[in-house]
Amino acid sequence: MSSTIRLLLASALAVQAGAATIKIESGPGGLVFSPNETKAAVGDVLEFHFVAGNHSVVQGDFDNACHPATTGGFYSGYLPALNGENPNVFSVTINSTEPVAFYCSQGKHCQDGMVGVINPTNAMSFATYAAAAKSATQNVAPPAVFGGTVGPAPKETSSTVSPSGTASPTTSVTPSTSTKPNGAGIISVSCGAIVAAVGFALFLA
């Protein structure tokens, strides 16, 4: 086995072993995501739980609030939680640590502040995106689910959820848009895929 392949395999396994699952709740107590700001490292998984109401999560464009990211991105579709938490969650794997905005595409929820940011900076934060969203003339939903997976919620999620409002960070973070870095092409390939690719390389070696 070549030293390069050994190094790739070790790196992929290290990333996978260190990955965290970051739980984000949609709709707890109103039109909010909780936390609405958090950090995520490469390999971490954002796990969106839909706990009340009928909401979605879309990766947003920092330059055009309440509109989907122009490159890459993700969209959960609507996951209603009208009689308790929806049994499914939407999971997205982080592939970059640049800022990523997200919002709910239901009605005027985005304009009303149901937005959030992964890996915020001073210029690209929950506060700046929420302020821009207030004046958005449209709240746009993509035509189909993409960029993540919808499936049954696991029995346990490793990370804790910060209170809604200006929530505190939970792990490390990512971005999106046309003129600013886009976190959703960023957010698509899982560590498992990396390990599988390296395993295939080992098979060929």
From TrEMBL:
<dbReference type="InterPro" id="IPR052953">
    <property type="entry name" value="Ser-rich/MCO-related"/>
</dbReference>
<keyword id="KW-1133">Transmembrane helix</keyword>
<feature type="transmembrane region" description="Helical">
    <location>
        <begin position="183"/>
        <end position="204"/>
    </location>
</feature>
<keyword id="KW-0812">Transmembrane</keyword>
<keyword id="KW-0472">Membrane</keyword>
<feature type="region of interest" description="Disordered">
    <location>
        <begin position="147"/>
        <end position="180"/>
    </location>
</feature>
<feature type="signal peptide">
    <location>
        <begin position="1"/>
        <end position="19"/>
    </location>
</feature>
<protein>
    <recommendedName>
        <fullName>Phytocyanin domain-containing protein</fullName>
    </recommendedName>
</protein>
<keyword id="KW-0732">Signal</keyword>
<feature type="compositionally biased region" description="Low complexity">
    <location>
        <begin position="157"/>
        <end position="179"/>
    </location>
</feature>
<dbReference type="InterPro" id="IPR008972">
    <property type="entry name" value="Cupredoxin"/>
</dbReference>
